[in-house]
């Protein structure tokens, strides 16, 4: 049941309090009843809380209720306004209607009539919400149908056998960006023998394709589809404003690795000047796909784990380890102690030591700002002064304090972000939820959010969303007579085949098999 917010605006406290206490708000599904004594106070409440329904008087000091209503409806167009007034004046009623006021009630207010009026507005809100959900589902269905037709056209464009490049005709419906070059990437998963994805490869490919559509297609950076072999193909637009294909894929590869615990083998074709050469870039990418692999761990071109770097490189190696352990507080602290100790025993001058400490602190602070989205402040300048005015031993202590404080500030934010994200997910299972939309919702970098969610929850964000959706689907299949496609829609899947694959991976049964077992237990 949805819980609604109501705002009561009247300059007479006896009326405000009377309305507040007279109506059985909880029985109507109202969770919050707010009050304001004037238009200025009411406008502030509307801006901060976005109520669903407002009951207001007309005659109030400073600004009357109708003028206030006009401003409010500009800010919150969906607000349902009910005017309560002691003036039986047609002009007031006429102006109220022209502003979009939902009802006009004369004082003294009859309790039964007012409850009926409020209930009617709540029914309207529920109807609008349901209509919006249905429209969203229909829009998504049309998009999926268009996507399927579009993929057929893209396969035709990249795989069509022709003798001459100029003979390629662009299939109807494909609209590429103008004035840019193109580059094709082909991706296929490397699935180990004991991986669960061996039995669910189709689901994996649909999920990975969805990730690329969110990352590439939704940003108008190119087109994503599956070729006739089921591999992922991405046609990138190449221009001065865009990142190249390898940079874009590398970013998403890290998220795919975290979310699905799988590596992608990648082939990237050459940049071609026009659409007639896309087939050449595609063919080249397919050939490379068998040998080229983008390793998401960019820091390890050689194995540094147990090797013994030279003295000259040891601080650099430790610094890299500290930064790469940004999300693992205990590991980062261990490497930090080793770094500080290495500076102390190296015999360098104090000024060089200050530079080494500042170099590490500034790099860690930059990582902190980049991943959390927090604004920069003056703490680095404070650290410089501290390092310059203290001896080496205290410089070691203050550098460690500086970095550790950042670690735990970040850790606290990590917990708060993920806690809020899980609440957000559980309240919106019918909506289009992805790592990307959630990262934007909580104003953090996508890769950071993906790693953070898995660290805090012990499972990837996509896995968590899927698990919660399947739990709800199991309940609906057990207690309702909804058809499979209707259950899919109720839990956020607009492609029934995708839903069935996800359901079987999580339960070992198809939705139909699950329902049969629930209805006919052995």
Automatic annotation (TrEMBL):
**Where would I find the Response regulatory domain in this sequence?**
5-122
4-aspartylphosphate-modified residues are 57
Q: Which UniProt keywords apply?
A: Cytoplasm, DNA-binding, Phosphoprotein, Transcription, Transcription regulation, Two-component regulatory system
Function statement: May play the central regulatory role in sporulation. It may be an element of the effector pathway responsible for the activation of sporulation genes in response to nutritional stress. Spo0A may act in concert with spo0H (a sigma factor) to control the expression of some genes that are critical to the sporulation process.
Q: Where is the HTH araC/xylS-type domain?
A: 419-517
Q: Name one GO biological process term.
A: phosphorelay signal transduction system
Against InterPro entries, the record matches this protein to: CheY-like_superfamily, Homeodomain-like_sf, HptR, HTH_AraC, Sig_transdc_resp-reg_receiver, Tscrpt_reg_AraC-type_HTH
- According to its UniProt record, where is this protein mainly located? cytoplasm
GO CC term, one of those recorded: cytoplasm
Record Pfam families: HTH_18, Response_reg
Q: What is this protein called?
A: Stage 0 sporulation protein A homolog
Sorted alphabetically, which Gene3D superfamilies does this protein's record hold?
A: 3.40.50.2300, Homeodomain-like
Under the heading CDD domains, the entry gives: REC_YesN-like
**Where does this protein reside within or beyond the cell?**
Cytoplasm
* Molecular function per GO: DNA-binding transcription factor activity; sequence-specific DNA binding
Q: Cite the source lineage.
A: Bacteria, Bacillati, Bacillota, Clostridia, Eubacteriales
């Amino acid at each position: 049941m949805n819980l609604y917010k109501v705002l009561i605006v009247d300059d007479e406290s006896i009326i405000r309090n009377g309305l507040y206490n007279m109506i059985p708000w909880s029985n109507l599904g109202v969770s919050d009843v707010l009050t304001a004594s004037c238009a200025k106070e009411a406008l502030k409440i509307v801006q901060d809380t976005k109520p669903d329904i407002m009951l207001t008087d007309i005659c109030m000091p400073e600004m009357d209720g109708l003028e206030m209503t006009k401003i409010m409806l500009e800010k919150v167009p969906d607000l349902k306004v009910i005017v309560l007034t002691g003036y039986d004046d047609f002009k007031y009623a006429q102006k109220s209607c022209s502003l979009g006021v939902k009802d006009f009630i004369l004082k003294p207010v009859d309790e039964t009539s007012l409850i009926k009026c409020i209930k009617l507005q709540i029914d309207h809100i529920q109807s609008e919400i349901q209509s919006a959900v249905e429209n969203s589902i229909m829009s998504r269905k049309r998009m999926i149908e268009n996507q399927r037709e579009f993929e057929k056209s893209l396969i035709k464009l990249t795989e069509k056998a022709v003798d001459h490049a100029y003979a390629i005709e662009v299939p109807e419906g494909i609209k590429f960006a103008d004035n840019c070059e193109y580059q094709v990437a082909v991706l296929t998963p490397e699935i180990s023998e004991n991986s669960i994805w061996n039995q669910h490869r189709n689901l994996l490919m649909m999920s990975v394709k969805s990730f690329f559509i969110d990352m590439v297609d939704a940003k108008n950076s190119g087109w994503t589809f599956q070729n006739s072999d089921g591999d992922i193909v991405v046609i990138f637009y190449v221009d001065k404003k865009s990142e190249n294909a390898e940079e874009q894929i590398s970013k998403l590869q890290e998220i795919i690795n975290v979310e699905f615990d799988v590596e992608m083998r990648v082939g990237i074709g050459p940049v071609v000047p026009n659409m007639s050469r896309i087939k050449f870039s595609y063919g080249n990418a397919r050939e490379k796909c068998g040998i080229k692999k983008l390793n998401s761990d960019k820091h390890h071109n050689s194995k540094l784990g147990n090797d013994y770097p030279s003295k000259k490189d040891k601080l650099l190696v430790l610094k890299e380890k500290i930064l790469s352990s940004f999300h693992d507080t205990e590991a980062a602290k261990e490497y930090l102690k080793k770094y500080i100790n290495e500076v102390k025993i190296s015999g360098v001058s104090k000024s060089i030591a200050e530079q080494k400490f500042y170099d590490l602190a500034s790099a860690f602070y930059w990582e902190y700002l980049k991943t959390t989205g927090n604004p920069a402040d003056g703490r680095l300048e404070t650290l410089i002064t501290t390092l310059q005015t203290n001896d080496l031993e205290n410089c070691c202590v203050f550098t460690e304090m500086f970095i550790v404080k950042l670690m735990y500030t970040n850790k606290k934010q990590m917990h708060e972000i993920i806690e809020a994200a899980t609440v957000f997910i559980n309240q919106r299972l019918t909506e289009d939820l992805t790592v990307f939309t959630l990262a934007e919702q909580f104003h953090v970098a996508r890769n950071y959010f993906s790693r953070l969610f898995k660290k805090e929850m012990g499972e990837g964000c996509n896995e968590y969303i899927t698990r919660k959706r399947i739990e709800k689907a199991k309940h609906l299949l057990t207690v309702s007579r909804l058809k499979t496609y209707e259950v899919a829609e109720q839990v956020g899947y607009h492609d029934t085949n995708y839903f069935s694959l996800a359901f079987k991976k999580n339960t070992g049964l198809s939705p139909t098999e699950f329902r049969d077992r629930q209805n006919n237990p052995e």
